[in-house]
Amino acid sequence: MNLLFDSEGKVNYDKINKETTVKDVLEAIDIFLNNNPIPCDTCKESCCKKAWSVEMDNVCVNRISNWDERCASDYVKKKLVKKRNYYREFDQYVLDKEKNCHFITEENYCTIYEQRPIICRLYICIDKSYRYNVVRELIGSTYLKALIFEEEMRTSKLSDELIKQYKRNPAVFAKGYDISLNDIFNYSEEEGWLYEDERDELY
Ligand code: SF4
Ligand code: SF4
């Protein structure tokens, strides 16, 4: 998978297959941004200093908590708030902030760059194609929902049936971003986020 500018000048990808993983997407973005650098250090309108939400995923929270379940749960309680995702109709966790992200410095450097949330990794502040945006959104939603599920499993006594249902999300307890897009798309279909005919257009 490679990212490129399409005929409309939008960021798009060439092709994916059944084996393509989320990690492949993130690597393709890094290569693209390396070849088409964005001047974040001199940006006057830093996306990290705006009032909009910074959505947090389970892998990011687990990484900054050194994979310690109690620390992860403390972090969720002290630093995050639940916010409704009205587009997908589920609750997600976002940083409890008014403006600047907790992790941005005056000079626009991210202090958790290597461990930053997946939505930050998937974000490119250039016009993006519809299919790139769909893939980005489905990956993000799967990992955002995984944090909600993991936190509930850490803090509440849930029925075996509910735990089984939560574990259908392929990102729950994932150690990283090695999940295949195929698994993300299967889960998205189960959740009603993606229809079969739309899925074909993503390959
Ligand atoms: S990614 Fe954010 S900080 Fe970097 S140039 Fe774009 S808007 Fe500015
Ligand atoms: S985590 Fe880092 S990249 Fe993401 S919004 Fe905060 S400062 Fe920006």
UniProtKB/TrEMBL annotation:
Pfam families: CxxCxxCC. It comes from the Bacteria. The lineage of its organism: Bacteria, Bacillati, Bacillota, Clostridia, Eubacteriales. It comes from Clostridium yunnanense. This is YkgJ family cysteine cluster protein. InterPro entries: Puta_zinc/iron-chelating_dom.
